[in-house]
Structure formats: structure tokens, C-alpha cells
Amino acid sequence: ILVLNMADIARKKGKIVDIEKLQKRFEGSVVVETTARIGLGKDRLTRAIQLNSSKKEYETFQLNAHLCEVEDLKGQEHEANERYILIRELIEEIEVEKNQKKESQSNRLDRILVHPIFGYLIFTGILLLIFQFIFAFATYPMDFIDSVFSIFSSWLGNTLPEGLFSDLLSQGIVPGIGGVVVFIPQIALLFFFISILEESGYLARVVFIMDRLMRPLGLSGKSVVPLMSSVACAIPGVMATRTISDWKERMITILVAPLMSCSARIPVYTLLIALVIPNEKVLGFINLQGLVLFGLYALGLISALIIAAILKMLMNSKEKGFLLLELPSYKAPRWGNVGITVWEKVKVFTLSAGKIILAISIVLWAMATFGPNGKMEQAANSAKIEAESLKLRVDEKERIIASARLEQSYIGILGKTIEPVIQPLGYDWKIGISLITSFAAREVFVGSLATIYAVQEDGGANRRLIERLKDEKRSDGKPVYNLASGVSLMIFYVFAMQCMATLAVVKRETKSWKWPIIQMGFMAVLAYIGAWIAYQILS
Predict the structure, then answer these.
(1) Cα(422)–Cα(405) distance, rounded to whole angstroms?
(2) How far apart are CA 117 and CA 247, in angstroms?
(3) Which of 83, 360, 433, 499 is the most exposed place for a label (fewest CB within 10 A)?
(4) 38: closest CA among 340, 335, 345, 341?
(5) Cβ(447)–Cβ(441) under 8 Å?
(6) Would you state the torsion angle of the CA atoms of residues 483, 488, 490, 492, taken in this order, to the nearest 10 degrees?
(7) pTM greater than the 0.70 cutoff
């Protein structure tokens, strides 16, 4: 069965196909005209399938099949030329033009949208508009989802009888599920816009104009959307690499996408910048704190491009990257297709990555809940006596007790264990615990510090936490958080793969643990070396 789709567009261009002549050229086949976007010709196609499925014998039409066996570039080029010669001859024979050819609307738009200068400016403007929508509107449903799961978790903890099962539900499973669901608004909005760009035909133009810039770095024009998507969240960015057909280019894009600073890093950046960067003006009008934040984003982007160029040299592939694509005509999006795309992306993320995220969340809860040989209870009793002697409020006393228990938990012991490794970066064991817990999600870093330093999280918690961190001293009396350690931490979070959700998605997209392990490894090395250099220079 030979299906001639987009029959409506052909007629708009004044082209009519002689079905009888075409069917004679493909003897034994059935030719059906369709317009798939609106379902026109569906019944004819169904009848043709039913009719042909009853035949006992099938005829195969092969066009110079022997040429396909040639692997070298000249053979591919020769095979393509042969095909186009035959196709042109066939079109001249079967196509009837009702009127003279006129310049299509798509060609007129392409004069601007793929222009060497205006094309890039328009694409930049569209991206700014898309991410403005994502950051502006995704915040509200994300905050709502986060608050719903937080309230539900608190309700479970207060309603269920005290015990491990209650704690597992309220502190492990429910927050773990919430950590999956909270990403849905960003993913849904991002793929909503990407689907509109794809349905309209504009996304193909973006790939075309960006290919020339990205190819020397081991990427392609199709890498642009995944990298820009990763500014919101690396998860949809990695998922968006499915449009890249070349294996090497897709793998490089997946590996460098998490280097783009995502929204989960913003709480970490905001806290550390307010902690160690003075609120001053540069050149009289540029805010220094804002300039540092811009620098962190720029560092992530530049690093991603440099690493991509290095990976291009290291990764071997028999495939040779080519950009072969058709620039489709512009058309209005089919909202049904947009909805299906968004639904499929959200469902795949929630069901596939969610299982791994939930499992690791439970493991982290267990490590923070249990400790060896009753040491957690001893530490809690000592902290209780100390808090009562200081006549602290009930909430502050509970925070101090929780901090003491955490220090003697398995995750606290792990923090003490890794302290010698992170000391050259300017970190102590408490920062080490926060680094470990933030593996679940980068923004957990702030909440972990609040718990460790016994700072109430509501009612000006961020301001109180900053004041508490500024007062934190080392054994020699020097402050733990200064310019050197603060900048070191910021650079660490620019590079480090502190996101188990992203690793889960990379594993699913590559169908192997090999690539997420490699990705986490080289990003950890980058994070450690970058943080060490920053601390040594500034200390």
C-alpha cells in the first residue's frame, strides 16, 4: 500500500497526482490519498489494508537495493543520486499541475526565520518567551504540589500512631512521591511549547540554523532544544534528545545537559550568594550578587560546550554525523497531538523515573533515621539536657535534638567519614551531610543545613539560617562560611551531578547504567577540582 499523505497541502499548491499512472508504476500495490491530520482517507486506507491482508502472496518492490549494501560515503552519495533521478522521472510522469507555481507562504517566512542574522535573533526571542512562561507559571503549580504533599506528610505524621511505619510513610514514601510529581508542571509546560514548535514546522528551522554553530563542538542543531530545556530542568532536557538520530551526538548532548544550571540550583545559589557575596554595586549600577548569579549560569554553559568538544574527540563512532531533514510547510498545531505529546512525556517520566526516585528516597530516609548501638538516643538525651539548661523554646529544643540525632545517624557517620576528603574544599562534616542528602535533589541542601543547624524553616527561616551560618566557627575560631568556602560550594553545585532523578532518566534513555555512572564520575571530578581551585585561590 502506497499512502500519499498531505493531499490537502498538495492541492493548495495546485498539484494533482494521477493515481492510475502511479499505481501502474507500482504494479501489485494500492495507492491511497490521505490527510492524516484531520483523518481524511482513513476509511479508504482501512479497506485497502483489509483487502491486501487476505492475499496469500506479497510482492516486494526494491529500488537498487544492492546499492544500500555499500557503507562508504561515495556509495551513499551515489545511491541517493540514483534514487532522486528515479523519483524526479516518476514525478514528471504522474504529477499534474493545475496552475503555475507560486512562491509558497513557507518560503516567504523562511526568508526571515532562517536568515543568517534575523533567524538567530528570532529564535533567541522565542526561547526567552518560552522560559519566561515556564519560570513564571510553573512556580504556582509546583508550590501548590509541594505544599499539598507537605501538608499530607504532616497529617500522616500527626494522625498515624507513632512508629517506624508512620515515619516511613510521612518522611520517606510521601516525600519521595512528591519529589517526582513536583517536576510535572515544568515538564508539561516545556513539552507543550516544544510540541507547538514541532507541530507548526518551526522546530525544523531551528535545527537547521543552529547546526552550523554546534557541529564543531560534537553537537548538532538538534542539541539546542535539549540544552536550553535543561535550564529549567535537566530531566526534560535529556528526554528531548530523542529527536537526535546520530548516536554520538545524542550521547554527548545527554552527558553535558546537566551542566546547564537548572532551577533546582537556584535555592542553593541564592543562599550562598546572600551568605558570602556583599550586596554592592559594580560600576555604580550593576548588582554584584546578580552578576555572580549570571556568572554561575555562564560557567555552566561554557563548561558544557568545552566538555562536548572533548567528548567528541574521545568517543568513537562509525557513524558520521549528517543533518538530513525536510523543512515542512508551516501549519497550525493540532491541539490533540500537542495534548498526547505532553501526556506521554509526563507519563513516561512519572512511571519510569519515579520508581528509582522513590526507592532512593526511602534509602536516604533510613540512613537518616537509624544509627548504631543506641548512639542516636544518647546524643538526643545529651542535647535535650543542654537545650533545657539554655531555656530554649520548644521548637528550638526539638531542632537541636534532631540535629544531634542526625549527627549520630548512619548518614551523619558517613558525613564524618567523608570529612577528610572534603576538607581541602573548605567544608566540614555538616556540609558533607548536606552534600549527601542533596543527592536526592539539589535544593535539599538548604533544608538539610536548616535541620543540622537547628534553624526553624518557617517565618523568616532563610534570614535566620544565613545569620546562623555566618556565626559558625571552626575549631581554630575561623568562620566556616567565608568567601572562599562559599564560592567553592557554588562552583561545586555548578558541576556536581546532585540529582538522582536525572541519573534515573539518563539510565532509562541510554538503557544502561554505564553512561549515568560515567556522567556522574566526570562531573564529580569537575566539581571537586573546580571547588578546590576556587578555595585555594580565595582562601
Answers:
(1) 22
(2) 30
(3) 83
(4) 335
(5) no
(6) -170
(7) no
